[in-house]
């Protein structure tokens, strides 16, 4: 089953938009790793300056290999100037119930709204 990592990142005041831009620009340093299945960046609507990053991995060992890599260290260094706090949570996905209907792409979803 998929191994999921969720980061809660507290971003310094006034740096949110720049953080988002840098996160997208350097995202392939994570997603190009063979064990990575994709990642998502979300901004909290309840807490100012709080972001959640979710990344899925083929297994825990693949994630741990990435976590110890030079690539990960460089990625963290580029995001560190924006961060004021946060935490990491890891989990094993135990079930997935896909949508039986609905838009296949973000563009189709937006058009249906």
From TrEMBL:
Signal sequence interval, chain numbering: none
Q: Which domain of life is it from?
A: Bacteria
Q: Does the record bear Oxidoreductase in its keywords?
A: yes
Which ranges carry the ABM domain? 3-91
On whether Oxidoreductase is a keyword of this UniProt record, the answer is: yes
What's in the keyword line of the UniProt record?
Monooxygenase, Oxidoreductase
- Do you know which Pfam families this protein is assigned to? ABM
Mention one GO molecular function: monooxygenase activity
This chain's protein is named: Antibiotic biosynthesis monooxygenase
């Amino acid at each position: 089953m998929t191994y999921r990592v969720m980061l809660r990142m507290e971003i310094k005041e006034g740096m949110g938009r720049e953080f988002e831009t840098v996160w997208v620009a350097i995202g392939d340093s994570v997603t190009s790793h063979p064990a990575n299945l994709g990642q998502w960046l979300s901004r909290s609507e309840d807490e100012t300056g709080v972001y959640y990053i979710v990344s899925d991995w083929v297994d825990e060992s693949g994630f741990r290999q990435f976590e110890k890599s030079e690539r990960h260290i460089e990625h963290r260094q580029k995001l560190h100037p924006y961060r004021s706090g946060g935490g990491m949570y890891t989990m094993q996905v135990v079930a997935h119930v896909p949508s039986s209907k609905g838009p296949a792409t973000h563009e189709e979803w937006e058009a249906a709204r």
